[in-house]
Design a protein that fits this description.
The protein is of the alpha/beta class. It has a domain at 105-319: 3-Layer(aba) Sandwich (Alpha/beta knot), CATH 3.40.1280. The protein has helices spanning 19-62, 66-103, 121-140, 154-161, 178-181, 223-231, 240-243, 254-267, 270-277, 305-319, and strands at 108-112, 146-150, 172-173, 189-192, 208-212, 234-236, 244-246, 283-285, 296-298. It has a six-stranded parallel β-sheet, with helices on both faces. A three-stranded mixed β-sheet has the order 7-9-8. α3 (121-140) packs parallel to α8 (254-267) and α8 (254-267) crosses α9. The longest helix has 44 residues, at 19-62. The protein is globular. The structure holds S-adenosylmethionine.
Length: 323
């Protein structure tokens, strides 16, 4: 493990919070409160919806003859069968694409899961949701990447193993670090990090791109850059600045970076990839006189909560099934 810079607050809550820290804390608390309220309202709405549909169905059956009832029940059975068959087909196709990426040299992308010690339990939880999302999006792509999760140990491994169907995921799962597992390919390792000097123009099919598995609300600034330097491997940042004007940081979440890579593989166009992946709310029209017409301003929210909630929402829909 690399020498770690101290976190901004040295790991301890300061005795006196500054005015901006207090504001930030209050904002986070308000956000958590709203999130909990939204969650419970959504749960209630779903419950009411289900009850209403059940009632309507029962009423429908009660008001018709026995013969009509049998027809209706049969139709419902057939529709369900059809949906199941479609899902099976989709699943088979997805497995085929992922196997092809694994066996026929799909672009390799590693998520470096070695930062477990630097995250709170809830941050690890968010990271695991982001990984679930990455896997789901990768599976839907026409050209998925060959995905690796390396350095999976401790709490991260425990939480990963709780994902329904995780044992069947078509990816490489490694307890070892990427530097060990891919030691014969060291010259092809490229750490993607917002702090790199080198800008990524293209994806080289022979290179292996590493994304830092970290949800840190930017507490560990520069940690992946430092790690790549210490390990003597290449680093590169996404060419965001060429297409978007960011109001502050260009640090994206793990799933956003993964999606951008996937979109770029599909479209060979960074601009499309950024516009399709970076949330619209973070993009505002920039001053037309100062900025190229293609450029937009990104209003970077310095916490990752909104992304976390977005990802959790998307993953929750699939959680009861296998991803
Ligand atoms: C939430 S960020 C972690 C930020 C962390 N403080 C660091 O130093 O990397 C998650 C990961 O996404 C990747 N990433 C985020 N923004 C990026 C960018 N603009 N260019 C390249 N990679 C980026 C990096 O691999 C990063 O480690």
């Amino acid at each position: 493990m690399t020498d770690l810079p101290p976190p901004l607050n040295d790991g301890h809550p300061p005795l006196m919070l500054s005015k901006s820290a207090r504001k930030k804390k209050m904002k986070q608390e308000r956000y958590a409160e709203k999130k909990a309220m939204r969650k419970s309202a959504e749960k209630e709405r779903k419950k009411r919806d289900l009850e209403r549909r059940r009632r309507e169905w029962d009423e429908k059956l009660a008001g018709i003859s026995e013969e009509e009832r049998l027809i209706l029940l049969n139709e419902r059975k057939m529709a369900r069968k059809e949906r199941m068959a479609m899902k099976m087909d989709e699943k088979e196709e997805k497995v085929g694409r992922l196997m092809k990426a694994r066996e026929e040299g799909g672009q390799k992308v590693v998520v470096d899961m070695e930062f477990g010690e630097l995250m709170e339990k809830n941050e690890i939880h968010s990271l695991v949701h982001q990984i679930m999302y990455c896997y789901a999006v990768n599976g839907r792509c026409s050209s998925p990447v060959h995905l690796w999760l390396t350095g999976c140990t401790g709490e991260i491994e425990t939480q990963l193993q709780k994902i329904p169907g995780y044992d069947k995921w078509i990816i490489e799962k490694e307890n070892r670090s990427y530097i060990e597992a891919l030691q014969d390919k060291k010259e092809n390792l490229v750490y993607l990090t917002a702090d790199a000097d080198v800008v990524l123009d293209e994806l080289n099919p022979k290179d292996i791109y590493i994304i830092g598995g970290l949800v840190d609300r930017n507490r560990w600034k520069g940690i992946t850059m430092k790690k790549s330097q210490e390990q003597g491997i290449k680093s590169a940042r996404l060419p965001i600045g060429t297409y978007l004007k960011m109001s502050s940081s260009q640090v994206l979440t793990v799933n956003q970076v993964m999606e951008i890579v996937l979109k770029f593989i599909e479209t060979k166009d960074w601009k499309t990839a950024f516009f399709q992946v970076i949330p619209q709310r973070k993009i505002t029209e920039a001053d037309a006189e100062n900025v190229d017409s293609a450029a937009v301003e990104v209003d970077y929210v310095d916490d990752e909560e909104e992304e976390e909630e977005e990802v959790e929402g998307k993953v929750r829909k699939k959680k009861k099934k296998e991803i």
